[in-house]
Amino acid sequence: MDDSVKRRRRIAIAALGGLAAGAFAFGVALGDGTPAEESAASKLTLPQLAGQRLVVGFEGTTPPAPVRRLVRQGRLAGVILFAGNLPSRASARRTVARLQGIPRPPGLRLPLLVMIDQEGGLVKRLDGAPTASARQMGARGAAFSREQGSRTAANLRGVGINVDLAPVLDIARPGSDTAATERGFGRDPAGVVATAIPFADGLRAGGVAATAKHFPGLGGARRNTDFSVQRIGLPRATLRDVDEAPFAAFAEAGGELVMLSSAIYPALSPRPAAFAPEIATGELRQRVGFEGVSITDALGSVAVADFGGPAKAGIAATRAGTDVLLFTDPRAGERALAALIAGLRSGRLRRAGFETSAGRVLRLRHILRGGPPADTD
């Protein structure tokens, strides 16, 4: 076994050990011997269960009334912030503090997930680290990438952000959108693993959850899926042996979140990845062995609109086994939430599956509780 594999396994063991310790402490706080996430999720109402599968964005620096209401009701797992929400560091800190200070129901007073796309290069929402693009990190090696991850964690934690929607683990094939935008760490799995995983390690060591994206890989996409439907015609063997390989390394290293692509992979399923049980459950969970939180790419993209809108997309993603729905528009998020609640109440959606996903989300929120204090009254 080479040193890099040994190192990743040590990291995975340490991460899982910390996870177990945190879950134990959470279980004790709940006053029973049931695993923390199962105990907490089993006590949630149906609307709260559905809400733990929802993250939304909003405009401006003040959380709007609908977002505040969802948080107060325990019907929201977190938010995603963009540059328009963060005109300055002081403003960013105030915005996050307002969000985390909203009173929440018992059992849901853990920190909200506060997410940002802070990849480096062309994709940054907040000034400061990382100061290099993924391509530059890949070229400069593991130590530089890990340092960039550590500096990014400090940058984000400084304003209260606890989840980075990075690193991109897509293979930067020549001619791909990933390569053209310098969002990829390497042209082959070994290069991506050698430098992207250290970036994620640096984030994790600094108290920020890392998100590997976009499973099972966008290295075969010529255009950004935010703007066009992409069908990636790579053979199943290539997808598994090449494109999924960095995600397997991320899972082994204790990675917290994986973002599913909205592209279509005909070799695996006729549906977009986030809506395909063959991918969201079969490939990611059963084959790769990922045990953390899975999340959709933004469900306001052209690819998702083509699929049928927020409610239909939300139902499809949850049935596929994707844990969290990501909406940049809170109104679209509320439509999806209403559809999930209605599905649970009618029995068309199973509570057991929602408890599993909500359990993963609550476990992550517990791990991140070292962030800005949540309301505890």
Written overview of the protein:
The chain is α/β, with parallel strands linked by helices. The chain has a single domain (3-370), classed as TIM Barrel (Alpha-Beta Barrel), CATH 3.20.20.300. It has helices spanning 3-30, 36-42, 46-51, 65-72, 89-100, 134-140, 142-157, 177-180, 189-205, 236-243, 245-252, 277-287, 302-307, 310-320, 330-346, 351-367, and strands at residues 54-56, 78-81, 113-116, 163-164, 209-215, 257-260, 293-296, 325-327. The protein has an eight-stranded parallel β-sheet. The longest helix is centred in the first third of the chain and has 28 residues, at 3-30. It is globular, with a radius of gyration of 19 Å. The relative contact order is 0.14.
List the helices and strands and how they pair.
Elements: H1 3-30, H2 36-42, H3 46-51, E1 54-56, H4 65-72, E2 78-81, H5 89-100, E3 113-116, H6 134-140, H7 142-157, E4 163-164, H8 177-180, H9 189-205, E5 209-215, H10 236-243, H11 245-252, E6 257-260, H12 277-287, E7 293-296, H13 302-307, H14 310-320, E8 325-327, H15 330-346, H16 351-367
Parallel strand pairs: 1-2, 1-8, 2-3, 3-4, 4-5, 5-6, 6-7
Helix pairs in contact: 1-2, 2-16, 7-9, 9-11, 14-15
